[in-house]
Design a protein that fits this description.
240 residues, alpha/beta, Rossmann fold, seven-stranded parallel β-sheet, 7 strands, 49% helix, binds acetoacetyl-coenzyme A, Acetoacetyl-CoA reductase, Acetoacetyl-CoA_reductase, SDR, oxidoreductase, SDR_fam
Length: 240
């Protein structure tokens, strides 16, 4: 029986590349998305990967949705917390809503989904959790006090969870992507994006598949002694 993997925010960008790579590697993959039905339908039509719509920032909705998935597809053994948003603004202009929405989706979503799968992973004595952070959690980024806080929070969260799961066959690791060729990055103004790429030693964005490569490595069965690590995949932009 293939292991079942759930990828949040999985119908586009890094999430979709990860879901497809996991499927190609033989996992039974399920993805979560929120809101964009047309994009989800297109992804499903192309990949045949089942898609489920809920807001990862909503604790109750996440418990209910994952409970339903487990009831029909069996326990989730691999969880990739990828769902994330940006609401960039300098702090002196940031609204409470911009702060809260990023913390609630990017960091809260990670808690909500981990909370829904962790008991079963502990009982079954196997689990792989891959949490998507960002280079900007490590380096900081102008205009991203909210996002940098949430993504750095993911790193601390993952290290604590790594300690808790270690004796139960569960690993939790972080992937910290650099600027990647996704909708999130391509929505930046052209001039801003040009400046960013200029500062990447590789002089280009990552492809989503280059990030997925790291996720696959960390969630593999035989990555069993890699726990609490942060894998930077950023073309040399920031070396922690
Ligand atoms: N470093 C230093 N100074 C900067 C700067 C930077 N990176 N960016 C702008 N400034 C300066 C500007 O030159 C300007 O200076 P003056 O007041 O002297 O003219 C001042 O700061 C204000 O800049 P803006 O006019 O741009 O301010 P704004 O309020 O209109 O916009 C912003 C602020 C929304 C944050 C905008 O600068 C922006 O979009 N920046 C890019 C943020 C970014 O890179 N986000 C990443 C999103 S993708 C992602 O997060 C994925 C991932 O994980 C990697």
């Amino acid at each position: 029986m293939p292991r079942t993997a759930l990828v949040t925010g999985g119908v586009s960008g890094i999430g979709s590349a990860t879901a497809v790579s996991l499927k190609d590697a033989g996992y039974a993959v399920i993805v979560n998305y929120f809101g964009n039905d047309a994009e989800a339908e297109e992804f499903h039509a192309k990949t045949a990967i089942p898609v489920f719509n809920w807001n990862v920032a909503d604790f109750e909705a996440t418990q209910a949705a994952i409970g339903g998935i487990v009831a029909t597809s069996g326990p989730i053994e691999i969880l990739v917390n990828n769902a994330g948003i940006t609401r960039d603004s300098m702090l002196h202009k940031m609204t409470l809503d911009q702060w809260r929405s990023v913390i609630d989706v990017d960091l809260g979503g990670c808690f909500n989904a981990c909370r829904a799968v962790i008991s079963s992973m502990r009982e079954r004595r196997f689990g792989r959790i891959g949490n998507i952070s960002s280079v900007n959690a490590l380096s900081g980024q102008f205009g991203q006090t909210n996002y940098a806080a949430a993504k750095a929070g993911i790193i601390g969260f993952t290290k604590a969870l790594a300690l808790e799961g270690a004796s139960r066959g569960i690993t939790a690791n972080v992937i910290a992507p650099g600027y990647t060729d996704t909708g999130m990055v391509n929505r930046l103004p052209d001039e801003t994006l040009r400046g960013i790429v200029e500062n990447v030693p590789a002089k280009r964005l990552a492809s989503p598949e280059e990030i997925a490569r790291g996720v696959l490595f960390l969630v593999a069965d035989d990555s069993s002694f890699i726990n609490g690590a942060t894998l930077s995949i950023n073309g040399g932009k920031y070396m922690a």
